Amino acid sequence: MNTLSLQHDPFNLIITGVGGQGNVLGSRLVGNMLSRKGFSITIGETFGASQRGGAVMSHMRISTHGNFSPQIPKGRAHMIVALEPVEAIRVLVDYGNPGVRAIVNTRPLHPAGVIAGNVSYPSIDELQKWTCELSAHAWFMDATFEAMKLGNPIFANIIMAGALAGTGTLPLQRKDFQTIINEQFSSEKADVNLKAFDIGYKRVEQEMG
Amino acid sequence: MKTSSPGSLKTDIQDRDLCINCGACTELCPYFKSYKGKIAMIFNCTLGQGKCFAHCPKAEVDLDELSLFFHQKPYDGHPLGHFKSIHVSRAGETMARVLFQNGGTVSSLISCALNNGVIDHAILTDKNGILPEPRLVNTTEDTLHCATSKYLAAPTLGELNKAMQNKLSNIGLVGTPCQMIAAALTRMNPMNQDGFKDPVSLSIGLFCTWALDTRKFMTFISSKMEIRDIKRMDIPPPPAGIAVIEKDREIINIPLEDIRPLILEGCSVCPDMTAEFSDISVGTFEDNPEWNTLIIRTEKGEQLVEDACKKGYLTLSDLPEKSLDHLLSGAGMKKKKAILKAGTEGLMNTLDNSKPAVLRMPESLIKTITK
Amino acid sequence: MSDIKNDAPPIRHLMMGNEAIARGALEAGLRVAAGYPGTPSSEIIETLAKQASKHNLYVEWSVNEKVAMEVAASASFANIRSMCVLKQPGLNVAADFLLHLSGSGTRGGMVIVSADDPGALSSINEGETRPYAKLMEVPLLEPGDFQEAKDMTKWAFELSEKIKNVVILRTVTRLSHASGDIVMGEIPEFTGKVEFRHEGFIIDPMEGAVMSAPVEYKHTLQQQKLAQTVDIFESSPFNIYNGPDKPELLIITSSICSLYCREAVSLLNLEKRVGILKMGTTFPLPPQFMKRHLSLTDRIIFIEEVLPFLEDEVKILCAEMVKDIGIKTFYGKRDKTIPMVGEMNADITLKALADLMGMTYQGAPEDYKKKAQELSFMKTPGREPTFCPGCPHRASFFSIHEALKLDNRHGFVCGDIGCYSMAVLPCGFQSIKTLHAMGSGTGIASGFGQLKRFGMDQPVLSVCGDSTFFHAAMPALANAVHHQSNIVMVILDNSGTAMTGFQPHPGLKTSAEGSDAIGIDIPSVCRAMGAHVTICDPFDLESTKETLLNMMDENKGVNVLVLKQACALSPEKKQKQKYDMTIDESLCQGESCGCGRICTRIFCCPGLIWDKDAGKSKINPVTCAGCGVCASVCPKGAILKKEV
Q1: For a Cys staple, B281 with which of B55, B205, B264, C607, CB 3.0–4.6 Å?
Q2: What is the mean predicted confidence (pLDDT) over C407-419?
């Protein structure tokens, strides 16, 4: 096994979104990819009642040495993957810092208060601006749109996982993804998942030049 | 007319027990609905102004403005309102002899109007058990089915709102004085809707001194008999002082004193006994229950009565002087009492930033009426 | 997902705390597991159910926690290992039996896993398991990380068998629902034949009758077992001290809080000044072990959730030992250093430690925090939980609300526990006005229904789910019928224990293990009890409303309305739209008088979007579940449904 190394130890990753977006699945997937490489992984998840349309967060602690607490201390996230743009802001506010980076799915999912018209939902431009103000670097993509092209909006989480891999911030490789996805799914389903992963990966890779 | 919000209609009219279940705020939207004689606001509505409020005969009714719209004359506080002539009437030979409450005048006029194309539809009040129920009819047969007084408040104006949504026009409307006021308000297009067309071609108002709170009445009567056994109810003109309830093989008299507590609160501030904002008003003729009192108020009304007499739907006769005096004093008394009550309860001519007024009229008129 | 691997040791796996507990039980040779679903405990039984046939287990979702504990106890009485799994409120349900069980003692190792939810992340209370151990006089274990969750569960069975009494293992949401690294052990094979032995001398613990009488004898025996436990705990490897020989401050902690403490000490670079005593065996505390560590310093802080349980137990010990260990200064919940309510985290720990050690700590720089705060409250809309798109509860409560308003007598709904509890929120039109334990809605309604004699003339409704019906509402219904209480009970039958992930219940034809089961028909049960029963489809708003109005009109007896429609997330419905929904924008009236956009403003299904700029409602193709109900809500017929 190669010597393990990380930009930060523990590396604090938050995957956030709205109940039903496949947040938990996405964090498990990334966690397993890294765990198999030999990293110690701790994932703290908030689900249950909050799964019903509420905000969902997975806190992932990636380390070369042992488990950390399942809740990242405030202001200590290194990377935020947001399946929903307002959730990105919410998490940045609590866990962000000048060095944090963010990958954001720009497709809004309106909270009940917005559907009801009691509160308004910021424009995507505003959300992008704020995300940039609160991070060292941010990537944006309409992963839901891309996922719907693949036949189901649920693939947005895999696209975002691919994007995370594409940033090169963590030692996540396509072949690791492939191995795990082949174990869990039929070849047909694995194929479309791999396609989703590649879409995210390439989007970020291109931008990185 | 001042218009306010659906929320104000709920808190300032319904919650203050002024609502008389006329139905004018129902069938407009998903929020106001009538059930068993009571209007309920199902969900809150956040609009600043609503047709529900604008149509309400207990919310911001400026009698001067209403009179100018309907009679092209200012409100003058006359006990019977503006009118052209007064008669007594009864159904003519053309009408099948069926059991009418009194002279069958309303059914005759509606039948005549339907058959002559004056109107295409009529909105009347039918019964379901003892519960009054609005009904849209197109034939004489259905019209006759709706004959007889109900004494319980019916949401008849909801049927008008429904008809308007279904783009019906040329409608004949029969209702109580408050319902005639609500209909007139509706016909003023108070919310300035584009492409609004007055759907009512004929309005026939019914004399009314009060109506009963449906639920209170049902509770009251169900302690005395099975509600489903009741066939008919009548309140003969004074001085009888009783309500007559007909069951299959039995007639029960209930003293009016027992019934009075069941009268709708909102009726106590109603200044209109004879349905002043209608083309024709019809009521009992106290001297002879076979006949009705008939007030013709508009040219349209005049035309119809003339036609109905000519074609045998209606027979007219003169109203005796003594009866007219009696009618004037009865209607005048109701008006006076209502305006005094509205005044003391703070429901008249309220200030701009206080709760809505039930009635508005020139202060000078108030003095004249309540003298 | 929650399929725990059966790889031979020492392969390391990323595992959820609940899976680790399940794995530990398997490695202990568990034979029978029973529980009732409840977040955050449900995955334990689910994980075991999947392994049932492979490892020769019997796993069931019981009708309620008390029965679950009884089922598990029977296996112990037959001298095989068993486990009862519940969330803390379920421990309250089972407490009656538990008091008898702890008195009678057990034979085969029996462990009760009780999951607490500090901060009530998925609950409507933050009840504590730990005081029960003291109340019931049984040992309590608290795993502090994922590996311990597995190892301690396994060991708990050995302890139980050694002392012949039940052992409580307490987990919390942040452990149960978090994942970490686990090194696996072997799973033993089962051989032999099971028998319940009862023909020996009446008080023989292994051959006689199993009961808590004679009380004085059994109670003494129970306390001897506890004394034996203390001896065992004195050398337990689950109690660990980490820190300097003479710390300036000693942290005493347990459970997942130990990870927060570790992180806080490390972030503040206090490793050489502060010691952490992580207790795994928290009742009864081992006095000699405690004495050694309490002697290290005079300043002690307790980091635990939720009640000051360790704090109080340690303070008792300190009082007893004051001559030997001297006077201490305590920090914790009692002196408000740590909040008395809510869950713990690293930040609360960091702040407390920094204050006590005269340091400052900040997560992000001040200017960053300031900028972030400006953007937060004002500009980012909150996200309150709501019923899912296509949820039958939204439709049910829409009709319930409308019927109550039309009826106009200030009627109300008594609720209880399930997704439908959310009907206290705007998503359920704030219909529920009392909200307590499982089945309590109907029990409370049964009482309200008797208050007519004191002049109360409001209609009384209760709601309960299909699983809750069997769990605790049946006795309440029997009570209401028997006493002729005038109520309407609405059973929201969505064909599963939906909130916790579709666990089966006695109304369904499958068991936890996926095998055939006898489904009990809810309407038949209610009819047999003497209630008038009507069944409606809640998606038919009109008939549901009419039925409710008629039921409320009937001024006597119990009416039951079963609203039957499967949960939108149920396996048979998920991803399968019944209708393709569209909006005819030319008909949509938006905000204007006549509609006031009831679909989005009031019905507020997340499958809809309010397009403020266009002034029209729209279907969100990403979220719409295609149930078609909003078409009935629209007063203008602008929402169209086409069968898929």
Answers
A1: B205
A2: 96
